[in-house]
Each structure stands twice: as structure tokens, then as C-alpha cells.
Amino acid sequence: MVSTRKLRLAGILVVLALVGVLATTAAAKTTRTHGTTITVWVDSPQKPAIDASAAAWSAGKGITVNVLVHAFGGIRDDLKTVSPDNAPDIIIGPHDWVGDLATNGLIEPLYPKKATLSQFPSYALNAFSYGTAVKKLYGAPYGLENVGLVVNTGLAKVPTTFAQLEKEALAFKHKAAGNIAIAVPQGSGGDAYHMYPFFSGLGGYVFGTNKIGNLDPSNIGVANANFIKNAGLIDKWNKEGLINSKVDYNTAKNAWLKGQAAFWITGPWESDTLKSSGKHFKIIQMPKIVYQSVPFLGVQGMMVTKYAAAHGVDSLAKDFVSNYMMQPSAQLSLANANGRAPANLVAAKKYSDPVLSAFGKAGVGGVPMPNIPQMGAVWSELGGAWVKATKGTGAVPAKTAFRTAARNIANKIG
Amino acid sequence: MSTKAASTHAPVTPVFKESVLAKLIAAFSGTPGIVLKIVLLSVANAIGIWAIVVLGTKHDWIAAAVVVGVTVAIDLLYFARRAVPAKFLIPGTFFLIAFQVIPVAYTIDVAFTNYSTGHILSKSDAIAQIKQVTLTQTGNGRTFTMAVAKDSGGHLVLLLSDDQTKQTYVGTSKSLTPVPKSTFTRASDGSITGAKGYRVLNAAQVSTVAIATQLQNLIVPAGGDRGIRAEGLDTAAELQPTLRYDAKHDQFIRLSNHAVFHDNGQGTFVNGTGKTQEQLLPGWKADVGFLNFSRMIHNPLVRAPFIRVFVWTFIFAGLTVFLSFSIGLFLAIALNKPGMRGRWVYRSAIILPYAIPGFLSLLVWHGLLNDDFGVVNSLLGHIGLHAPWLFDPNWARVSVILVSVWLTTPYFFLISLGALQSIPAELIEAARVDGAAAWQSFRKVTLPLLLVAVAPLMIASFAFNFNNFGNIYLLTGGGPALNDNGIAGATDILISYTYKIAFAAGLGQDYGLASAFSIVIFFLVATISAVSFWRTKSLENLA
Question: CB B233 to CB A63 under 8 A?
């Protein structure tokens, strides 16, 4: 009995000691001790592009760039809770995260050279700028995306005026049951992003700007006087069936691919679908309604987190982001790998993909999606108002729907 | 009959047939058991030691002490031959604490803080970040072409060339000294490759941890409160603070007009009051007492549609449970008939919705119920019907209840089937002998006996559906929007409505407010459940 007990105790002690040693060495390995390391968080579709850029930048510097895949939304949310040891030095994300991240104090302002800044359109820089009193650049923009009007040229003529679009679309719709006039992805919850060209063409805007050019959350333009004056057109479109919010994303896509819709509102993420569809098509900006019908702009970019300084790599991370990544050559290779038109104007001139360039042109004059955190209160209300006004029979007059939305947004922002 | 026959036999010594469980226990009582115990304890200890090492490197001594205590306690407990009941209780208790007690305690803790967008850092981090953000570029955005070098004494210096004036400087942490342009050797692209009296470091040399850290912390004084700082490996910018932190009084002072930003006690530095109040970003996570609860009461977003949402939550949860139970029970009785052909096929088919992940089937239903393009309406179209399932407020309410019932019925079918089989057939036989009709015997005998077993599960299901965020969010997103005052949609239940207020209003994410809401909803559900359980006791008396 005693011997078993001794054996048992000895066994336990040996295993414990072994395990303890292993655990300690494993823990020691995870702490940063050797070499300079920069950690980048990126969503999986963009990883190859960022990998290539990171390798080109770090060559000869002796820096290891860890490009880690993170779920798209997780990049923003996990940055708020990550422990400083595991935190990234650089993140990749869309510009509309900037307000949220800067308000939380998680990203650092950048100060690129004037010569570099002058190669970017002001809206791309504005998209990544945020501040309540002083506006700061918080990210290096590199990829642009926006929706355009995709016209199946085999089914309809490319319209130059909105009246022409309306006539063509309705004529096509009446040709056969099941045809859709203009396929605008909506669905029961609405989709403010895809309907924005109509909204802006009628004079709507989300937030106005204050004296120093920053977005002002107290100036809500969802039911501004100009828009309300023109809102009757939405009721007319609803009645004649030009727009139908019951068309959701997949319905719109399938209808266009099956030739049951001649006009489709979509963006560069469907570029491969379009190219392989075998259809003849043209991508344009939607013709002017009352005002220019501009889309929302989304800008992809890189941001330096506050943790870069804690890791001692602040200057290095900024070199990668605000020097290297903003140069035309880096922007061009990133654009080619990523399937989005480059933000840098010099690079954009050399960019040759016909479909993506056409989407880029459809975005001229576009409005960056507001990057202030108050935008979270807008999406569902704006999309919901459009759905209420364009759901066919039983629709609410657009005036009422958008006034309700404006009031709710103001209440939500508080 | 058969029992009587058996009793006539002489009593035989019963052959003890070991159960699988007993065999298992026996197998693990010897050496394999000891080995398994050692392995499991080693794993537990390894995790403990690993946690202690990690916590130690982070100087989190309290947590480390707790881990040491728990690990030692577990070892002592399982080494000792005594305290057998504790050996069985400890794992359960451990998981209870880890997955129930700690999250609840954390939620309660968060409910009393302002943890939300703009308030996630600690105060010291927030102050450091404000100091960073307060820096602004001077003049017209003065930037420099830069090279990192070491002087003869081995100190890190910046070789600077103003991009606008082309003036050249050598900057140290003490001073900025103009030097003649001829001091620097420049490459064709303008970058500085060398300088008389200095050793220019190449990219690899600058990129070592030691130099990179020195570089990011090197601020060259440029007169007044301005400073020049590296913004990369070959670029520097001149920056100037707009605010000064006064550590003694714990306040920020704006340099241009001496406006004072004081700590408002709620995690923000503020200047002024009311509409003209200015806040510095970011703020920090601070204790705010009952502020979140008073915001709940005073928030017009909460007050306006509260009653409507509250009533609808009851209708949604109540109808879902009632209908699912009724249909489930009906099907269970129908399929409980002995000797029915293909019982297993029917039973499996009914359980199917339960086996498919809810996330999937909800999204599928969302597509099926599409108004003009969905399968349901195109089928109904053949008989001349058309329902605006997800677009009309009342139809949307019908839709969410229908889909919830579809998802919940299999559950009640299963438990009803089980409960039915546990009701002794003699009782129903007796009722029939006493002349009860089928409905009467069901109403007076089967149902009361069934409810004893099923009622607690109905209460649990009600509580679950009361907070069934997934069903609402994935099917209708709480919509469609209504025209009344407030942001709750037609199908929003309390929990999805809370989500809208806490995560799609204000500045985005308000964990503090969300936690306060969860506590209130917890008390609501707990009260309802407690009252119901108390009432079901009367059912047991009946039995």
C-alpha cells in the first residue's frame, strides 16, 4: 500500500515538474523579446494584398510583419478589448470606423508629407479625418468603392437623363411579368447604402458640416426642406413600380443575371460576377434627378493603433502606413491584388481594370459615408423610411416616412 | 397474469448483472483510475502554472494568488482520501462560478459604469491619448525630410531638411541646430544619405527594437512648446500641443484661451455646461452609480413605446409557448397510438426543425416569406392569396410567431411524448371504466398529469422566448418600422429593443446601459418565472 502511494506521489511530482517547465518556457516564448515585430490585423480577402505590401516594405529592414487574419467586424470590436500584449500595431478597415475608434482613443493621427497628400482626392482624405474641434487624418486611404448603375446594354439603352432611365426601365418592366424596373437591393429592413443615389439626387443628405468642415450630428438632412420638396417623386416611382423595396440583394442580383432586370445598382464587389456573366453591360453614375445622384463612398485604409507606441514601433508603423502605403506604386499593387480602384490619383491613372475603373468613375462627386459614431443611429432609420415609402401598396407617403426617420435619428443621437 | 405465474416459482438467488456504468467504475478504480487521475490533475496544474506565469509577467498579483489558491485546493482535495462528496461537487461548482457567477457579477459591475463608445480606456491611458490627439501641425503643416543618425558621442540625432524652406538642421532631444546645406549628402530623390560628423543609420539599423523605441520617443524642441517628431523613417513633422495637462489639479488647460477642462466625475474632461459644453476625447471608464438606471427611466426613447413593446413581448412569448405546446401535444397524442404504422418516420419528420440550427432556418424563412419573390406567397398565389408577411406590421407579428412556433413545436412534441408514456395506462383505463368520454379523460386525467411534468418546461420556454433575440433579429430585425414616436419596430421585443437603444443610438455602443437593461429584464423574467413556478405547485397537489 505504501509503495503504491509513494509511486503515485512520485509520479505526480514528476509530471507536475515537467508540465511546469513546459508551461514556463511556452509562456516565455510568447513574450516579445527578439527582433522587431509589427502586427497587422486584416480581414481574410485582403490578406494576400497586405502580405505582399508588407513583404516589400520590410525587405532589408529586419522587421517581421505578422499579418493576422481577423473577422471583418472583429477588427474594430476586438481592438477595444484586446490585451496590450496581443494588440495590433496596424489595422486595415473602412473609413467609417474612424470616428468610433478615434472617439475611443485607439488610433493615432498621421502627418504625411504635403507632396503625398496632394496625390489624394480630398474626399478620400476627408473620409479618414475626424475630430470634434480639430480635424485629423487617422488613416491612409488606399481603396475606393461605391455603387453604380449597371445597364444591360442588350436589354436597354444607356440613359443620359433620369427621365430616359425611368422610361426605359418601365418599358422593360412591362415587357414581361417578373421583370424588375430598377433592381435596387433593399428587403424588409431596407438598405440605405444602395438607395443613396436616389436620396442624394432628391436633395437628401445625412449630416451637414459645421464651420470648420466637420460633420455635425445636430444637423440632420434626412428630411431637409429641399428633399421634402422633391419627395413626392418617390411616391410616384412607387406607384408606377419603378422602385420596389421588396427586391432584396439576391433577388436583384439574380434578376439582372437572368435578364429580368436591365438596371442594377451594385458595386465593385460584384465585378467578377459581372465579368463572368457573359452579358454586355455598361456602368454609369445614375443620371441626375433634381441634384447629381451621387453614391456613398467607402474608402479602405490602414490605421496605426495606440498600441504601436507601447510596442516601441510607432515610427516604424507610421513609416509603413503614411509613407510607404500612400505612394503610387504601393497603391497600384494593392489595388490590383484587392479588386478596388486605388485612392491615389497618380496610381488611379495607371489603373487599367475596365469594370473597376468604371465603378470608380460612377463615384465621382460621391459622399463618404459619415464616419462619426452617430452614424450608427442612422442606417436602420434611413433604410426603414425608404422601405416604408416604396413597398408598393400600403406605402406611407415619403414625406411622412422621412420626417419620422429624421425625428427618430435626432432622438437616438440624443 | 405473468406476474402471478412468476411468483409460483421458488425464489432463486438473483444473478447480479453488472451495468455498464458499474463496469466502468470498477475499471477506473484500479491502476487505470490512478493514471487517469494523475493525467487530469497534471493538465489542471499545467493550466494553473501557465496562468500564474502569465499573470505574474503582467504583475496581476491578486488574480495570480487566486489561481494559486484554487490549484492548491484542487490538488489537496483530490490527493486526500477524505471528502468524497466534495470531489463530485467541485467540478460543477467550478463551472458554475466560471460561466454563471462571474458573467453575472461582471454585468452588474458594468451596469454601474459608463463603459461605452468613448469610455473604454483607463483614466491614465485617456490622459496620455488626449495629449497625443491635442498635438496639431504648426504653420502650414511643416514637415521635414529626415534621416536618423548618431553623433560622435553615440547619441541618436535627427538630420532634418524642411520640405518648404529647404533649411537644414540637426535635431537632438535638447536642441534644434541649423547647419549649412553642404553638411548633408543627398541622393537624387532628395533623401539624406550622409552628413559630416554624423553616422547615418540605414533602415535595418533604425528598425532594431532599441533604436526604434528611442526614435519614437525622441522629440526635438523647436522653440516654444513646439516639437519635431519622426513620422516614419524618413519623415518628421513639427507638432504643437493645443492643451496642457495640469497634473496637480487634474485638469487640461487650452493654451489659446486658458479654458479649463475639469474631470466631470463621469469619465470625461469638460469645459462649460449645457449645450455649449465641450468635451475632450477620449474619455475613460468610470463608476457612475445609478446613472444608467436613471437614464433608462428618463430616456424618451425608452418611455414612448415601452408599454407597447412590453405587451408585445408577453404576447410573443406567451403565444409561442401556448401554440407550440398545443400543437406538440396534439401530435404527440396522435403519434403515441401503439401499433401505428410509420410512427418513426412521422416522429423524425416532426423533430427535424429542432435539428436544424435556428440561425439557418430563420434566414431561410426570411427568404421564404419574401413578399413578392418568396416561395410562400407564390404558393399562396395559386389559391389567389397574398400576404405582406414581413412588410406589414401585423403580418410581420404573425410571421415571427409562426416561425417561432415552427421552431419550438418539436421541443414540446418530444417532452409531451415522453410525459405521455410515463402516465400509467391504468389511470386512463380506470377513467374509461368510470364512463368518461375520450375528451373527458384527456381533460381530467391526462392533461393534469402531463402538466405536472411539462409546466416547468413551459415556464422555462416562456422565459427563453421572452428573450429570444435571435428569432426577432434574424427574421425581421424588429421591423417593419412604425409611424409612432419611437424607434421600436412592430416586432421588437424588449431584448431586441434594448439592443437598438444600447447599440444603434447615441455614439454606438453603450455597454453600461445595456447591462442596466439586462438586470431589469432579468428581474422581470425572474419574477414571472417565480410566480409561475409557485402556481404550478397546485398542479403537483392535484397529482
Answer: no
